[in-house]
């Protein structure tokens, strides 16, 4: 009877516009009588995740969970991340957010007190040790990307504005063969008649000290250097931090139609005239129609060929 009067009194307080917290907690705990006596109130439980550890990033996503057998005094909460009001329930709550770490150990603590027994205050502490990545070297070789260079196929149809090449088409007058009307179409491409080939790569500087220039070289399989159309075996470009497009053109007069393997070399240069270089294998396609029987740069449209190359390969045109 004593407990019943207590509960009625608490609900009576609610009717006057005050909190129903204690009555709800007693009902929630399932303890309605003193015979047998109610189990003793337990202090709150806190979960703080992730636990103590070492991290390689300056931000960490942290989750905090609070729970109690009767109720939590949210006015006493302390947390490394915000606990939104909509996540603050009578006897539980949670929050998730990011914390920023400084190099070395970083200590974070979550704490809260019991509403039913205010003396029951608990806390949990974690230590996140941030180990920053090493700084970039003062001078470093560039990284090479072959993405701008297509050494596997050459298709004008895949280019904007026909790869900016001069092209023409010509169809002969119709004639009859095997009782069917026919005609031959010829196509011209300036690139097919040129005795020059172009390569282009992206070189990215990752140094702490920006480069003052970059250079491009091309090496044959016999380790000799290719001479570019400007008469030099090394072409220089203005550069700085980030990515620089390197491109060059060289003469292929002595090469028949085929696919050829080279090694592209990109160098980063600094103010003290020192440099570091990176290399990458690269394939160069050569299409020679400068001696076509149909005229310089002309070929029969749609006529396919398979041509074996001097480097034990084959290309399809």
On the 0 to 100 scale, the average pLDDT is 80
Poorly predicted runs: 1-30
User: Which geometry do the CA atoms define?
Assistant: elongated
Indicate the CATH architecture of the largest domain: Sandwich
Strand order of the largest sheet: 2-7-6-4
N to C succession of SSEs: HHEEEEEEEEEEEEHEEEEEEEEE
How much of the polypeptide forms β-strand, as a percent range? 35-45%
Query: Helical stretch count?
Result: 3
How many DSSP-defined strands? 21
Structural class: mainly beta
Could you describe the largest sheet, including whether it forms a barrel? 4 strands, mixed
Helix content estimate:
under 10%
What is the CATH T-level topology of the largest domain?
Immunoglobulin-like
Task: Give the C-alpha Rg.
Answer: 39 Å
Give a verbal description of the structure:
- This protein is mainly beta.
- It folds into 2 domains: 129 residues, Sandwich (Immunoglobulin-like), CATH 2.60.40.10; 174 residues, Immunoglobulins (Immunoglobulin-like).
- It contains 3 helices and 21 strands.
- The strands form 7 sheets. The protein has a 4-stranded mixed sheet with strand order 2-7-6-4, with no helix packed on it.
- Strand 6 and strand 7 form a beta hairpin.
- The radius of gyration is 39 Å and the shape is elongated.
- The N terminus is likely disordered.
């Amino acid at each position: 009877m004593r407990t019943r009067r207590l509960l009625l009194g608490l609900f009576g307080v609610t009717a006057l516009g005050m909190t129903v917290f204690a009555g709800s907690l007693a009902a929630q705990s399932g303890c309605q009588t003193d015979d047998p006596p109610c189990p003793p109130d337990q202090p709150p439980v806190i979960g703080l995740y992730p636990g103590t550890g070492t991290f390689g990033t300056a931000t960490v996503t942290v989750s905090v969970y609070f729970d109690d057998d009767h109720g939590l005094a949210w006015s006493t909460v302390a947390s490394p991340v915000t606990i939104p009001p909509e996540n603050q329930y009578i006897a539980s709550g949670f929050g998730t957010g990011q914390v920023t770490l400084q190099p070395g150990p970083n200590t974070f603590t979550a704490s809260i007190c019991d509403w039913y027994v205010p003396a029951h205050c608990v806390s949990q502490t974690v230590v996140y040790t941030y180990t920053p990545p090493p700084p970039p070297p003062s001078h470093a070789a560039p990284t090479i990307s072959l993405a701008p260079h297509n050494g596997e196929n050459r298709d004008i149809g895949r280019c904007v504005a026909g790869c900016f090449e001069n092209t023409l088409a010509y169809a002969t007058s119709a004639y009859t063969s095997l009782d069917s009307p026919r005609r031959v179409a010829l196509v011209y491409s300036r690139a097919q008649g040129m005795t020059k080939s172009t390569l282009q790569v992206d070189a990215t500087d990752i140094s702490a000290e920006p480069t003052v220039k970059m250079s491009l070289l091309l090496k044959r399989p016999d380790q000799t250097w290719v001479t570019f159309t400007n008469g030099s075996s090394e072409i220089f470009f203005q550069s700085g931090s980030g990515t620089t497009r390197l491109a060059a053109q060289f003469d292929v007069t002595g090469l028949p139609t085929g696919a050829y393997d080279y090694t592209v070399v990109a160098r980063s240069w600094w103010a003290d005239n020192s440099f570091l270089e990176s290399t990458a294998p690269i394939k160069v396609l050569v299409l020679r129609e400068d001696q076509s029987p149909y005229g310089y740069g002309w070929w029969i449209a749609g006529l396919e060929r398979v041509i074996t190359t001097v480097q034990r390969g084959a290309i399809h045109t």
